[in-house]
Amino acid sequence: MPRWGMVIDVKRCIACWGCTIACKEEHFLPPRVFFNRVLIGETGKFPSSSKLIYPILCNHCSDAACVEACPTGATYIREDGIVAVDDEKCVGCRACLVSCPYQQRTYYDQKVKDREYFPGQGKTEMELIGEKLYPLKVGTVIKCNFCSERLDEGLKKGLEPGLDDDATPACVIACPVGARVFGDLDDPDSEISRLIMEKKGKQLRKEFGTEPAVYYID
Amino acid sequence: MKQRNELEKIMFHPTGSDLKPYEWMMRPTRQQEWIDDKGLFLWLAFFFSEIGAGLYFVSLFYEYKAGLILGWLITLVLGGIIHVLYLGMPLRAWRMIMKPNTSELSRGIWIIGIFAALGFLQIVTAGSFNVVFNCIMGILCLLIISHGFATMNVIRALPAWSSTMVLPLSVISGVWIGHQILQFMFAVSSSAVLASGMEVWAEAFFFVYFLCILLYVWGTWHSNEIGKESIKSMISGEVSKISLIGVGGLGIVLPLLLTLIMWGGDTNGFLIFLRLASVFAGDLAMRYVIMKSAVYKPLI
């Protein structure tokens, strides 16, 4: 069984937020809910300062703090390493949300559901269709799932995740500069494994011991 | 500017502080889920469960059934119901018993369940103050008292909560307030001698409580940069008034004055009530400040 992961080349990323938008479209996310974000900062002082651009998403940690914190087993790690939420089991205690050091989860309540992209003007057709096509359960926690619906469907069709668009997360396909690479971390011959080895891939906040499956290279 | 702020409020996740949306997780970012909006329920639930268990615990030593009943009711009715109200899916609350091996919340539900059953047995049976039974209930009470802060303590991402002093502080605060409620119950139920006799313990508990707060602040400040940020926001951030008036004034200074006035057992009902009200508000403030000022380490 593969263990899915992602490599993000921060030198290639141009902070276009294409991944953020593609993700919002894929999951029909309401305003202020992001499964993908781009953090932009600076390090050092002028004239030797440099800009930092870090696209962030759920790290699908193999020793995830959220999985440990969940009292119902709603948050679990799939066999392929994806950290998923079973909204039939989630009680909305938000222990997972508080314990995630990367803050990559969102509590989906009625207030979030009622938000409109054009406040006071009602929901657009797109928002209404989204609620039908990708129903999110009020009172539960939602998060990035590495587009597991696409992955699972693609695998059923015999496609290869990371290479075939229909079996690859939306943020990876949308990236115009190819800063994101998706693949099997357990396969030593995969592109993702090669990049991590050759470019010494780093995980975010390794000190928390969560073993993220998202690596950053530069 | 006003329009821009309005737009920011609509389009970006409110950070609950003076943090700008683009500074989210780029600067120490405050936890919101367990204190803002509906999160206030959790703050109250932890508080009531703990003081109820504290009252039960202290009542065991005095073999005082009315204290047991009140403690049991506060823990289960107030603490329990508020806990459930906080949940997004309250009807599924039973599912929280499923993962006691990893989740502190789940363990808490088990402990409260056992406490509810054994506590009920202790209250309704005639020979209820058996030594073994008392010991079991005492241990359960201590576990419930520390449950709220233990749930917070395991969260490594928030140094203000994972401080080693969080658990001792929670235990002593539960016992201290439980003791104060019981002393007040004795004072108003014509057991003035007992209330006066309890004063020696009140002095001890108060000073240990005060010491634990000092050690918590000192330990968190020295733990790491993020812990220091939390303490800074307690002292000079948006909760500084609550820290100063609530924790400092009502939780420490006023009880200290009242304790000094009643030093040596010279108690009276009104002063005991005043100190109870003061420590009650002070402890609520202390919990609020600790929950509100916990911040996450920036990601990059």
Summarize the structure.
With 218 residues, chain A is α+β, with helices and mostly antiparallel strands. Chain A has helices at residues 18-27, 65-69, 95-99, 110-114, 125-133, 148-156, 170-174, 191-198, and strands at 4-9, 36-43, 50-57, 75-77, 83-85, 105-108, 140-143, 180-184, 202-203, 214-217. In chain A, the strands form 4 sheets. Chain A has a 4-stranded mixed beta sheet with strand order 8-1-10-9. A two-stranded antiparallel ribbon of chain A has the order 2-3. In chain A, strands 4-5 form a two-stranded antiparallel sheet.
Q: Number of folding domains of chain B?
A: 1
Secondary-structure element sequence of chain B? HEHHHHHHHHHHE
Mean pLDDT of chain A: 95
CATH architecture of chain A: 2-Layer Sandwich
- The name CATH uses for the topology of chain B is Formate dehydrogenase/DMSO reductase fold
Count of β-strands of chain A:
10
Structural class by sheet pairing and helices of chain A: alpha+beta
3D structure, described in words:
The complex is a heterodimer of chains A (218) and B (300). By secondary structure, chain A is of the alpha+beta class. Chain A has a single domain (4-217), classed as Alpha-Beta Plaits (2-Layer Sandwich). Chain A has eight helices and ten strands. Chain A has helices at residues 18-27, 65-69, 95-99, 110-114, 125-133, 148-156, 170-174, 191-198; strands spanning 4-9, 36-43, 50-57, 75-77, 83-85, 105-108, 140-143, 180-184, 202-203, 214-217. Chain A has a four-stranded mixed β-sheet. Chain A has a two-stranded antiparallel sheet with strand order 2-3. The longest helix of chain A is centred in the N-terminal third of the chain and has 10 residues, at 18-27. Chain A is globular. The mean pLDDT of chain A is 95. By secondary structure, chain B is mainly alpha-helical. Chain B has one domain: Formate dehydrogenase/DMSO reductase fold, CATH 1.20.1630.10. Chain B has eleven helices and two strands; from the N terminus they run αβααααααααααβ. Chain B has helices at residues 2-11, 39-62, 65-86, 104-124, 131-153, 166-188, 192-197, 199-223, 225-236, 240-261, 269-292, and strands spanning 29-30, 295-296. The two termini of chain B are 29 Å apart. The mean pLDDT of chain B is 92. Chain A binds chain B through residues 31-32, 37, 39-41, 52, 54, 56, 65, 67-74, 89-95, 97-103, 107, 109, 119, 138-141, 204-205, 208-209, and chain B through 10-13, 22, 24-26, 29, 31, 33-34, 38-39, 86-90, 92-93, 95-99, 102-106, 109, 151, 154-158, 296-297, 299-300.
